[in-house]
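Before surveying the methods themselves, it helps to consider a single example record, giving the amino acid sequence and C-alpha coordinates:
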Amino acid sequence: MKKTIITVVGKDTVGIIAKVCTYLAENKVNILDISQTIVQGFFNMMMIVDAGKIDKSFGQFSDEIRAIGEDIGVQIRVQQEDIFNSMHRI
Protein backbone atom coordinates (compact mmCIF):
# COMPACT_ATOMS: atom_id res chain seq x y z
CA MET A 1 0.00 0.00 0.00
CA LYS A 2 1.27 3.47 -0.92
CA LYS A 3 -0.67 5.92 1.24
CA THR A 4 -0.93 9.41 -0.19
CA ILE A 5 -2.54 12.55 1.23
CA ILE A 6 -4.61 14.73 -1.11
CA THR A 7 -5.92 18.15 -0.08
CA VAL A 8 -8.37 20.23 -2.06
CA VAL A 9 -9.08 23.86 -1.13
CA GLY A 10 -10.97 26.62 -2.93
CA LYS A 11 -14.24 28.38 -3.57
CA ASP A 12 -17.11 25.91 -3.43
CA THR A 13 -18.65 24.95 -6.75
CA VAL A 14 -20.62 22.06 -8.20
CA GLY A 15 -18.63 18.96 -9.19
CA ILE A 16 -15.40 19.26 -7.21
CA ILE A 17 -15.72 15.87 -5.52
CA ALA A 18 -16.99 14.25 -8.74
CA LYS A 19 -14.03 15.47 -10.82
CA VAL A 20 -11.41 14.46 -8.26
CA CYS A 21 -12.97 11.06 -7.52
CA THR A 22 -13.47 10.26 -11.21
CA TYR A 23 -9.79 10.89 -11.88
CA LEU A 24 -8.80 8.72 -8.92
CA ALA A 25 -11.07 5.85 -9.98
CA GLU A 26 -9.81 5.98 -13.58
CA ASN A 27 -6.25 5.64 -12.25
CA LYS A 28 -6.90 2.77 -9.80
CA VAL A 29 -6.45 4.96 -6.72
CA ASN A 30 -8.53 3.74 -3.78
CA ILE A 31 -9.96 6.25 -1.29
CA LEU A 32 -9.26 5.02 2.25
CA ASP A 33 -10.61 8.01 4.17
CA ILE A 34 -12.20 11.31 3.19
CA SER A 35 -13.31 14.43 5.02
CA GLN A 36 -14.82 17.52 3.47
CA THR A 37 -16.32 20.72 4.80
CA ILE A 38 -17.65 23.95 3.43
CA VAL A 39 -17.03 27.05 5.53
CA GLN A 40 -18.59 30.33 4.39
CA GLY A 41 -18.47 29.25 0.76
CA PHE A 42 -14.97 27.77 0.85
CA PHE A 43 -14.50 24.08 0.12
CA ASN A 44 -11.92 22.02 2.01
CA MET A 45 -11.32 18.30 1.50
CA MET A 46 -8.66 15.95 2.78
CA MET A 47 -8.32 12.42 1.46
CA ILE A 48 -6.08 9.53 2.39
CA VAL A 49 -5.74 7.27 -0.61
CA ASP A 50 -3.89 4.13 -1.65
CA ALA A 51 -1.96 4.98 -4.82
CA GLY A 52 -0.11 1.65 -4.93
CA LYS A 53 -1.76 0.46 -8.15
CA ILE A 54 -1.37 3.64 -10.19
CA ASP A 55 0.48 3.14 -13.51
CA LYS A 56 2.19 6.56 -13.44
CA SER A 57 5.08 8.17 -11.65
CA PHE A 58 4.21 10.13 -8.52
CA GLY A 59 5.22 13.33 -10.34
CA GLN A 60 2.90 12.68 -13.26
CA PHE A 61 0.04 11.76 -10.91
CA SER A 62 0.62 14.94 -8.91
CA ASP A 63 0.82 17.14 -12.04
CA GLU A 64 -2.36 15.69 -13.56
CA ILE A 65 -4.49 16.04 -10.45
CA ARG A 66 -3.13 19.55 -9.85
CA ALA A 67 -4.19 20.45 -13.43
CA ILE A 68 -7.70 19.18 -12.70
CA GLY A 69 -7.77 21.54 -9.73
CA GLU A 70 -6.73 24.46 -11.91
CA ASP A 71 -9.49 23.59 -14.40
CA ILE A 72 -12.17 23.66 -11.70
CA GLY A 73 -10.76 26.60 -9.72
CA VAL A 74 -9.37 24.85 -6.64
CA GLN A 75 -5.90 24.07 -5.37
CA ILE A 76 -5.05 20.38 -5.12
CA ARG A 77 -1.92 19.19 -3.34
CA VAL A 78 -0.60 15.64 -3.18
CA GLN A 79 1.95 14.34 -0.68
CA GLN A 80 3.23 10.88 0.10
CA GLU A 81 2.32 9.82 3.63
CA ASP A 82 5.89 9.71 4.97
CA ILE A 83 6.62 13.24 3.75
CA PHE A 84 3.30 14.52 5.09
CA ASN A 85 4.02 12.97 8.50
CA SER A 86 7.53 14.43 8.58
CA MET A 87 6.25 17.92 7.76
CA HIS A 88 3.58 17.81 10.48
CA ARG A 89 5.62 16.26 13.26
CA ILE A 90 5.85 18.39 16.40
Summary: The longest strand covers residues 30-39. The domain at 3-87 is CATH 3.30.70.260 (Alpha-Beta Plaits). Residues 33 and 42 are 21 Å apart (CA to CA).
